Amino acid sequence: MMIRTLIQTTILSTSLLVPSMALAQDDVQVQTTDLGHGLYMLATDQAGNVGILVGEDGVFMIDTQYERLAPLIDHAQREISGQDVELVLNTHWHGDHVQGNAYFAERGAVIAAHHTVRERLTHPQTSHLLGSTAEPLAGAFLPSLNLGDHFTITMNGQTADIVHTPTAHTDGDLFIVFEEANVIHAGDLLFSGMFPYIDLDTGGTVEGYIAGMEAIIARSDENTKIISGHGPLSTRADLEASVAMLREGKARVQALVDQGLTLAQIQEANPLADFHEDWNWRFITTERMTTTLYRDITGRLE
Q1: How many domains does the chain have?
Q2: With contact defined as beta carbons under 8 Å apart, do 256 and 269 qualify?
Q3: Domain membership flag for residue 294
Q4: Range of the domain at 192
């Protein structure tokens, strides 16, 4: 049964590393990891990690990276499937997960996301942390299937349980549990081994982010393969480490806020200093993580 029929029916009723299947573009390569059961992780280290489920029902893709990388992602998945993508699911609205949408929609894919995503893409908010505003998207970039808080798709012998986590990384985050395969795509609810980006300007919160990670932990065991939004293929232990770091980091910043310190004074105190070596990275630096925690606690920008 093809995915369009599966979608219509649902609406009406409601790790082994394989040799690189890579195509270079400006030194970008797609690295493909076989997770078994027709599931694969596609990574470029340039944007959010992509998941695909391949089988006789068609190709189900999770996230599409940037527009310029979409042909590379498509080439990689075609080497596995030999097919067009039938269904795309966006885990949230950020450009490095959705800007390839139009490429796949123009080739026949249905684009799905949480119902908040379409509004975020058409009317993006300014990120105070990054000091920038995304360009609005329209047309084939936008989801045509707008999901609620819980949605299930059965395809290629897998039950994909799609769960919304409110006020987490954004207000429209989804994670996907492939029940039979014991594989989870976490979207940006996991920046594995890195400080996470918590988008406070589009509904994200630190406690909601922690709750989102804990919801994934509750659906996993020690054998679960977890596709992170950014970073390597991960495990429940990686999520638990991220939760522990974020809880401790928030507690440290909270203690300084309680003493009446300003953001500048807290940055000078550097309460996350001992996390820097392991968690700092080019996008969410220790300084930006401290700023996020301060703003989440106080509601202030300085």
Answers
A1: 1
A2: yes
A3: no
A4: 3-235
